[in-house]
Amino acid sequence: MTPGNGSTVDGVLRRSARRTPARVAVDYRDRSWTYEELDEAVSRTASVLLDQGLAPGDRVGAYGHNSDAYLIAFLACARAGLVHVPVNQNLTGDDLGYLVGQSGSSLVLTDPDLAARLPDGVRTLPLRDADDSLLARQATAPAHDGPEPRGEELVQLLYTSGTTALPKGAMMTHRALVHEYLSAITALDLSAGDRPVHALPLYHSAQMHVFLLPYLAVGATNTIIDAPDGDRLFDLIETGGVDSLFAPPTVWIGLAGRPDFATRDLDGLRKAYYGASIMPVPVLERLRERWPKLAFYNCFGQSEIGPLAMVLAPDEHKGRLDSCGRTVLFVDARVVDEDGEDVPDGTPGEIVYRSPQLCEGYWDKPEETAEAFRDGWFRSGDLAVRDAHGYFTIVDRVKDVINSGGVLIASREVEDALYTHEGVAEAAVIALPDERWIEAVTAVVVPRGEVTEAELIDHAREKLAHFKAPKRVVFVDELPRNASGKILKRELRDRLAAD
């Protein structure tokens, strides 16, 4: 292999393999890979991919479940100079076709049970569980010895979650992700002695780039499981198999609601990371009461920045449970008005970022790129306030702020009030068109037990100014979410506006 500068995603693994070759890097089901074995598998898999007729710069879709094969495929794409395109394994139909088509993927790596969902004519290669799978082929392939990619080259199209519009492919370079890995290691206190479990989908940037790759960089032993199953997670914690867990608020809510939450021996968990969507303060308070010695970290950011931008560390939670913390090592952030001018501390405005972690723009979307990147700063779309000590608190997404009778209302404030009622399992607050109020504050609630609309509206009025209380409460069995746990408020607005 022609030497490069080593500032590449696959270079992270290469260095760990040279430093601790015999240490176990990954456990998945009944398979275990040392760092040396994982590095060799990545090199052989890179050769397999290039033998498919692919050339550096080609896009390769990844449409599979969590597995060691999924990780190896990503790292192999990085080593071969290919651009990895992670695809939500829950997508079907037009949504799936859009990502594959918009990215221009020449090949899609997929698990056999998902292959039939792909559009006709898409070239595929199975990741695992077949004689011609990527795992099977790499066992006999030669090691890749081609030129090493450079740090400024693209390594991934990281599609946004699409909660407000069609997903956009954030163009991530090797250099951007390596910077983000170092930010994650320093802000989240990741170390080789940790025993993390990776339960969220690996196609999602948080699990892959905030935890799995940074943990490979420091030489930890990583356990990958298929999904955030409560029984499996509790067993791993109770037996000492893992001591570090990242999950979105939805998963933490589910774990806290299990009948055995109070009875299982879960004291072996040392680090608890939450993020991907806003954690309701009442839920966080319940978790901290159950685990008073557990180190909680709030992780905040978005796909375009790798995705980690801010962290609230364990010793920073007191008195600021609603904060997402301060910027990480390689991120600079400001809070600005509509004209891009700084607003005073304590005043809501949009967060803008400048960072080597940022994407290069959106794949084949020049207008959206120009709109997002202005005056050298990236417009996040997040409405926040900053205090005098540099802590940020997210008020809302700019597009989710409710204009009711000319008064702007943050949906998060209303949601936090609703979560203090014992009859609310989950809640999402949205704006619906209203002839009198312009937009009416509407709460969509997954109930716990028996509770009425009038009861919840009265409860909200006790906690909030009356104009902020919901005008309407809609009860549902579940809230629509993407796989990262974010509530799809756009889908709720469309669905309820049509009723």
Topology of helices and strands:
Layout (H helix, E strand, L loop, with lengths): L8 H11 L4 E5 L2 E4 H16 L8 E5 L4 H13 L2 E4 L6 H11 L3 E4 L13 E3 L7 H5 L15 E6 L9 E5 H14 L8 E3 L6 H14 L3 E3 L5 H9 L5 E4 L1 H8 L14 E5 L5 H10 L4 E7 L6 E5 L13 E2 L4 E5 L12 E6 L11 H7 E2 L2 E10 L5 E6 L4 E3 L2 E3 L1 H9 L4 E11 L3 E10 L5 H11 L8 E4 L13 H9 L2
Parallel strand pairs: 1-10, 3-4, 3-5, 5-6, 9-10, 9-11, 11-12, 12-13, 24-25
Antiparallel strand pairs: 1-2, 7-8, 13-14, 14-15, 16-17, 17-19, 18-19, 19-20, 21-22, 23-24
Helix pairs in contact: 1-2, 1-3, 1-7, 2-3, 6-7
Count of separate DSSP helical elements: 14
Regions with little confidence, pLDDT below 50 for 5+ residues: none
Instruction: Supply the CATH class of the largest domain.
Output: Alpha Beta
Give the class from helix and strand content and strand pairing: alpha/beta
Shape: globular
Rg, Cα atoms, Å? 23 Å
Q: What is the terminal separation in angstroms?
A: 60 Å
Architecture overview:
The protein has 499 residues and is an alpha/beta fold. It has two domains: 1-398, 3-Layer(aba) Sandwich (Rossmann fold); 401-497, ANL, C-terminal domain (GMP Synthetase, Chain A, domain 3, 2-Layer Sandwich), CATH 3.30.300.30. Helices cover 29% and strands 25% of the residues. The protein contains 14 helices and 25 strands. The strands form six sheets. It has a nine-stranded mixed beta sheet with strand order 2-1-10-9-11-12-13-14-15. Strands 16, 17, 18, 19 and 20 form a five-stranded antiparallel beta sheet that branches. α7 links the parallel β9 and β10 (222-224). The chain is globular and about 70 Å long. It starts with 8 loop residues before the first helix and ends with a helix. The model has no long low-confidence stretch (mean pLDDT 91).
